[in-house]
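Something for you to look into today, if you have time. Just paste the record in under my message, thanks.
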Amino acid sequence: MCTNKLEKQINYKFKNIALLEEAITHSSFQKNNLKIKKKNYERLEFLGDRVLGLVLSEYLFKTFPNAKEGVLDNYFQKFANQENLFNYAKKINLSVFLKTQKGDNLKNNKSILSDVIEAIIGAIYIDSGLKNCKNFIINNIVDKNSIYFKPLKHPKSILQEYCLDQYNDLPKYSILNKFGNEHQPTYEVSVSIKNHEVVSATGTNLKKAEEAAATKLLSVLKI
C-alpha cells in the first residue's frame, strides 16, 4: 500500500518519508525479510507516547484553566487511552498500511494499532517539530465535540468506585506474564474483584495492560 495514501488519511506530508515507513513497520517484517534492514516502529512509539502526553496535558491545562487535577486526568485518559487511539487507527484504515510478516491480520489488534498511532506522532515530531504534532493530535486524537461535556472517567477509576460501593474493597491487579523484546515487553495482567471470575488482558506497558483488564471486566459487569 502506497504511503502517500496514508499521508492523505492523516493529512500530513512528510519531508522524510523514511520516518513514516519506520512508523508502520512491525518487528516481524524484518525477521522474514533478512535482506531488508529496516527499523520498526518501537523507538518512534516510545517517543510518540511522551509527545502525546505532553501535548494533551498542555492542551487540557489551557482549555480548562479552573479544572482540578482529577478532571484534567479524566479527560487525559479519555483521549490518551488505547481504545481512543485504536478507534482513530480504524478510522484511517491503518491496518492495511502496516508492514508485517506475511499472513498477519492486525485489523483488530488494539495494542499494536494504538502503538503505531503513537509511532506516527513520534515520526511527525522528528520530521517537523512540536507545532505540527500539536495540530495532528488536537485535530485527530481529541474529540472536540465531546470535550466540553462531563468527562468520562478512566476504566480503573470506574472499577474502583464500583468495588468500593459494592464490596468496600479495591480491585486486585496481578502481573501474569511478561514477554517479547526486553526493551519493549508486553505485559499480561489480571484483575479480580469479589464474587466474579478473574479476567486478564495484555498491553505494551503495565499501565496499558491494567487499563485493558479493567475495561474487559467492566464489559463483563455491563457497567
Notes: The chain is about 55% helix and 10% strand. Residues 42-63 form the longest helix (22 residues). The chain has a mean pLDDT of 86.
